[in-house]
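Z., the sequence and structure:
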Amino acid sequence: MKRVISLLIALSFLLVPMYTSAANEVFVGINNVMLPLDNAMPFYSNGAWYIDYLDFTRGDLGISASYNKDLGTAVLYNWDVTLVFNVGKGTAYKEGGTQYNQRSFFRNGTVYVPAAFVSEQFGVTFSHISEVNTLRFRTTSSMSDTMFTYIAKNRIPDLLAAYKMSQSAASQDNSPPVIQPGNDTNTGSENDIKNNVVYITVNIKSSEKLNEIATVLTNYNLPATLFISKDAMKDDNLVRRLCSSRNSIGIFANSTGEASLANDFLFAIAKRKTRLLRADGKLTDAEVNGYRQWGASLDARSRNAAQTNNMLNTRNNTVLLFDDSEASIARLKSVLAHINKQKFVVRTIDIMTNPIAP
């Protein structure tokens, strides 16, 4: 019987469709899933594999990331580990003071970080499966690389076809690029941009409103920092989608105990936790419990949209505050339209950003 099973497994591998790759594409797998192929492929240099830092967030590894253009730093973090790469200096350091001579690179419009080093710091199992030229990262999967190879061979023809189709479409598109403020791209003089940096933050207590606000942000193609209560996390798929998007995720809670429960809930849904916190008032034990509590520099809930827009025109590094009330969502739409029209730079909050006191 065992011999028959072995023969069947061997036969199944023979039946897997073969793939060819003239351009030596390198693929990425997260746990049991192959990521779509794009121009920001991994590359091998001086004995190490380097990967787009955002690939660590494109699955269920429980890792978040952000990039600070002013400091030239890429940050990878979860609840336990914060790893900061300084691209210009060629160094990395872990929160707590440990510094490493680990280089990162800016290439193909993104930051590349050493795959094995990052994996080691976050307790991720890393392997290069040469048979399918795939870098695999896993935390929750018990599937062997041998079995994953079978999955990869099935998926790679489709991934290659989709990639080549996107490349063909891009080569035929002669229209000028659309510059979005959310991409942190300079659209005017350097001084103009420095005076128009905006952080959009929204307090969300309702699951129905979470979906509405997510749709609004998508429609205006702008990111925000969303402080979400436990009660608002009822749609698992939506929460996972937001965690893997350009938005930054925080917790809305009125005690650190409540925040911990919300974080446990977030981890169960999206395999990640957050240290960003907002409450109705100041929580004196937030910092000792590992949270960074945020206030705001401009409360857009108590002003009409015209007043908020006029104030944005003359301010720098403004942290806007909205909530999930109907009136606030209506104001949010008007303000987002103004931000796009004025080509302001929109950034999200991460744990390296100095908080505004509540």
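The first strand starts at residue 27 and ends at 30. The chain is about 30% helix and 25% strand.

Let me know what you think.
H.
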